[in-house]
Amino acid sequence: MTAAYDEIADWYEERFGGGEDPLGLHAALGELLGTGSGPCLEIGCGTGHNAGTVADLGWTPVGVDISARMLGHARGRLPVARGDAALVPVRSGAVSAVVTVMAHTDMSDFFAVLRQIERVLAPGGVYAHVGVHPCFVGGFADHSDPAAVVVRGGYRETHWTKESWTDQGLRDKVGAVHVPLAGLLNGVVAVGMGLERFVEGGEPVPGMLGILARKPG
Ligand SMILES: C[S@@+](CC[C@H](N)C(=O)[O-])C[C@H]1O[C@@H](n2cnc3c(N)ncnc32)[C@H](O)[C@@H]1O
Prior knowledge:
Radius of gyration: 16 Å
Bound molecules: S-adenosylmethionine
Shape: globular
Order of helices and strands: HHEHEHEEHEEEEHEHEE
Number of helices: 7
Strand content: 25-35%
Number of domains: 1
Structural class: alpha/beta
């Protein structure tokens, strides 16, 4: 298994582990996931810094990630297993909740991951996705002036890129897959989950989109 994040795990922990949350990721996760109990699987859990938010809602957080170095930071925050999101090492129908946070753009075939999410969810289970906003974040978008974001051509094509307006982010280091908004929403519908709720975060232009979906009961 290749794991691009192995190279930057320590930097990631330092850069994003400090509690700053300008996009409102934790609030969005809380709003979408809601309170519950039983295991909540985070696919692409990274260093595990969403575990507290999940636990505060009453769920028992468990995580899967492909990067051993990221999981090294996660241990102590939640129980984790190393595994590929395209073949999640979890029994079918075993969990009532799955979350992905800032992870779909790191996965080469997110549609295969959506099929896995639907598979591991129990009937009636919820899927909360919190990710970069496909309309405003990507190699095609220049945020040099946050008040006047420039969105260039390239949005419509699903593609992988390391192109970025800044050298302080993730995309310039590990690259990112861009999936247009319609493709992302259609992907959730295509695996048979129902779309229930959406949230956007970040100012003055949204940088985050959250989606709540549910496996039919
Ligand atoms: C931007 S980090 C997000 C980590 C965490 N969810 C957070 O909010 O901080 C993306 C994570 O997805 C993981 N990842 C990428 N591809 C993966 C795959 N195929 N299977 C499992 N995890 C993967 C990376 O190793 C990395 O830890």
